[in-house]
Design goal:
- By secondary structure, this protein is an alpha/beta fold.
- It has three domains: about 80 residues, Winged helix-like DNA-binding domain superfamily/Winged helix DNA-binding domain (Arc Repressor Mutant, subunit A), CATH 1.10.10; about 120 residues, Alpha-Beta Complex (Aspartate Aminotransferase, domain 1); about 200 residues, Type I PLP-dependent aspartate aminotransferase-like (Major domain) (Aspartate Aminotransferase, domain 2).
- Helix content is about 40%, strand content about 15%.
- Helix 1 packs across helix 3, helix 2 packs across helix 3 and helix 15 crosses helix 16.
- Bound molecules: pyridoxal-5'-phosphate.
């Protein structure tokens, strides 16, 4: 039986020197393509007749060369099933290139790893308490596939779908309706522009709104993704401290009253988790309106609130077009969907779109249509309700078991929202030490100081719980206990020597 093969595209061959015969040129080129891996093992070669026609040579020459390559073991031929590159042929390593040209070395040497990624430990696979993913195992994949299949069957009509660069209009209408109902945001579909996620929205906004050196407020501690976008655009980050009510607007005014704008996460502050109080929201809006400043409201996971009333978005309180809202379906559905949105004030929408044209003239994907159907058929609402219960239970387990297993080592925040939470170290470890110790015990936590600017290390770690069931959470908490006990067993905390063991009460340092 013929092994599975990859079909060969029209193969480009190097030019023939006048002193080389056709046969030696063709043999040399084909052999080189195979040995260098340009024609990988299992690739099916074009039929000799087609190959001869493509390159303007006789079929006899092609057949002769193929026979020689076959005799050397480079290709395998079978009557009736064609010729393909031998899977077991010895393939020499690709030719090594010398050092790269200056322009590449310039790029490499001027690249600075963003602070949040320095020394990051990124293991393969998903393990507790990784915080990137929602519970993808719980996503109704078959349902999604069914909707996608229905769309695919009508693919011809999709080919004629109009695209003005904003993204699939019916999806923008559905998002406008969803935001009006669930977030109190009044927007027309023309104000909504689809992006690949919050990060792309942020990058475009920051480059549109700021010049290098322009000051901008960020929460301290705050979202590393926003910090990366602002820093790359050369903006000057003014790190405004957050307290239990969110960003401290009074302090921001003292630090830099005339900042061009602010980036905030009012529904669920990243990384500490509190909700911005009504007074602070009004103060922030009042400041922005007085200064003519923008507010970027990152509404990344506001749907997941497990107690109290859902608070409308800041955008819903805005009377002066200062607020730009960005959101994403990464946490709501699944991260590889890569669909997010920016809700712009009407007077800015066309300019944002013009700016987006710098990187992409078109903005349609079949996934947008599938998502639109998923929303309009009522599945988004159902999925959200189900996931809210699931995440609430998972957080409940984390809090209960965390309290039992980690007493005196880690105090887990009692905020009941989102897909991650924060734990404050009570064993004297720094955020980074805890991150490293956890990794050594096979679990993943995110050091809180990766999100700080001026603020000293808050000595805490972020724990994602959304993607892990109760058993996995309990097991991982025991591993975390073992990791955090290392410090308590060897170092005195607050001047008091500490017993090793699981339930030693230690005062926070
Ligand atoms: C504060 C914040 N904003 C946005 C996002 C999601 O970004 P994206 O849509 O680019 O995946 C995250 C994800 O962790 C986040 O923590």
């Amino acid at each position: 039986m013929c092994p599975k093969s990859v079909s060969c595209y029209e193969l480009t061959l190097g030019a023939r020197r006048p002193d080389r015969t056709l046969t030696s040129w063709l043999y040399g080129e084909l052999r080189r393509a195979i040995v260098e891996g340009r024609l990988p093992p299992g690739t099916r070669l074009p039929a000799s007749r087609d190959f001869a026609a493509q390159h303007g040579i006789s079929r006899g020459t092609v057949v002769g060369v193929i026979e020689r390559l076959q005799a050397e073991g480079h290709v395998v031929c079978q009557v009736g099933s064609g010729t393909w590159v031998n899977r077991v042929a010895p393939v020499a390593a690709r030719a090594k290139h010398g050092s790269p040209p200056t322009y590449i070395r310039r790029v490499v040497s001027s690249y600075k790893k963003p602070k949040p990624w320095v020394d990051i430990i990124s293991p393969r696979g998903v393990r507790p308490f990784q915080m990137r993913d929602p519970a993808v195992a719980e996503f109704p994949a078959e349902l999604w596939a069914g909707i996608a299949a229905k769309r695919a069957r009508r693919f011809r009509s999709w080919l004629r779908t109009e695209d003005d660069g904003r993204g699939y209009r019916p999806l923008r209408e559905a998002i406008a309706q969803y935001l009006a109902m669930s977030r109190g945001v009044r927007s027309s579909p023309d104000q909504i522009i689809l992006v690949s996620g919050v990060q792309q929205g942020l990058d475009l906004l920051v480059r549109l709104l700021l010049k290098p050196g322009d000051p901008v407020w960020m929460e301290d501690p705050g979202y590393f993704g926003a910090a990366i976008a602002f820093t790359s655009a050369g903006a000057k980050i003014i790190p405004v401290p957050v307290d239990e009510q969110g960003l401290n607007v009074g302090t921001g005014r003292v630090m830099c009253a005339h900042a061009r704008g602010a980036y905030v996460t009012p529904a669920h502050q990243f990384p500490l988790g509190m909700t911005m109080s009504f007074e602070r929201r009004m103060a922030l809006l009042e400041w922005a309106s007085r200064e003519g400043a923008f507010i970027i409201e990152d509404d990344y996971d506001s749907e997941y609130r497990f107690e109290g009333h859902p608070l409308p978005a800041l955008e819903g309180l805005d009377r002066n077009a200062n607020v730009i809202l960005i959101g994403s379906f990464a946490k709501l559905l699944f991260p590889s969907l890569r669909i997010g949105y920016v809700v712009l004030p009407p007077a800015l929408a066309d300019y944002f779109l013009a700016f987006r044209y710098r990187t992409d003239f078109r903005n349609l994907s079949l996934d947008q249509a599938v998502l639109c159907d998923f929303i309009l058929d009522g599945h988004l609402g159902r999925h959200l309700r189900r996931m809210r219960n699931l995440y609430s239970d998972r957080l409940g387990t984390l809090l209960d078991a965390g309290h039992r297993y980690l007493g005196g080592l880690l105090r887990i925040s009692d905020v009941r929202a989102g897909l991650y939470t924060v734990g404050f170290l009570e064993n004297g470890m720094s955020s980074r030490d805890a991150e490293r110790a956890a990794a050594a015990h096979g679990i993943e936590v995110f050091a809180l100081d990766r999100n700080t600017f001026k603020r000293p290390d808050p000595k805490g770690v972020l724990l994602g719980f959304g993607a892990f069931d109760e058993t996995a959470i309990r097991r991982a908490l025991l591993q975390l206990r073992a990791a955090l006990e290392r410090k308590t067993s060897c170092a005195p905390v607050n001047g008091h020597p500490v017993r090793s063991g699981s339930s030693v009460a230690i005062k926070p340092s």
